[in-house]
Amino acid sequence: MQYEVDYMAVGDGEKWGDAICMRFWNLSWPRNEWSVVVIDWGFTDSWENLVNHITKLYWTNDVNLVIATHPDADHILWLHVVLEKLNVAQLAMHLPWNHASDIKELFKNSDISTTRLETKIEKALKNASDLEDFAISKWIEVIEPFQWMEWFWWILKILWPSKEYYEWLIPQFRETPKAKESVFETIWKSFSDAINWIEDQFDIDLLDDDTDTTSAENNSSVISFFQIWERKILFTGDSWKTALHNALDFAEANNLDLTNLSLFDVPHHGSKRNISSKILNRISASMAFVSAPKESIKHPSKKVTNWLKKKGMNVWITRWQNICHYEWGLNRSWWGPLQLEEFHEKVED
Ligand SMILES: [Zn+2]
How far is the CA of 272 from the CAs of 4, 127, 209, in angstroms? Predict the structure, then answer.
């Protein structure tokens, strides 16, 4: 059994969003013996990057599954190109507008008709709704990924979100109609852009544990777990702490051990708001990949990369370059080694 996981750097500056593509199982056998999955694709300068990677390096035009983790532009804006240029069998993405009748009561104006609410949610999440429309026009099967779902004979398991949790989040999305006071939980806090630097040392823990301060959209991210033979990979999108804890609870309850991962996809471009020591005490991995732009002081947080290193993980950051994690000796001789992230003496306060 073999696999390759590639983080393709696309976009630059403030507008980025790496795409992840992978293939796994009997890679040296005919195409039907292995599968190709693409996870997210945000802003890009040229669509050729990822498409060529799959056609020229994987030697196929067929993608078995595309996963759109959540509706933010840096994750889905260019995914339609994958659907257009390659033969995609299935698209896994949430369709919040289809839940309108279930969640009407959660909105301030619960008298609204289901159709009207549906339209408002579709408008609020236009990028996502356009992606669904595009997939339908190409006859691609669209499936909502919720907890318990599995693909590829149990290789891929969706750990989170559950359908109930996802529905609770929809009224809290930025552009959807206002949620009822009782439902709405303030998850937006204002942050100052100034960074105070403090000393870090190898033996102290600087990640605070209790604040959940990212957007509901981020928190709706699909958390997926791949077990390819005995190798395990966890993808987290931009999910925040509550979602991660829920995913970890689910994994533990179902005897999925996440303490010996081969690859840990660090959530939300390495932001310190999405991860805590409590979460990192429940996960361990030999490698951690961070999808982050070329020049950003906040992404990834040095606190986060330091703590990953303290946990014994080797950390690599895309920073606008492609990075690859593979098993069982595939030939990538033209890909050079990438510099490991170092331990930082000073971290953000
Ligand atoms: Zn993001």
Answer: 28, 27, 10
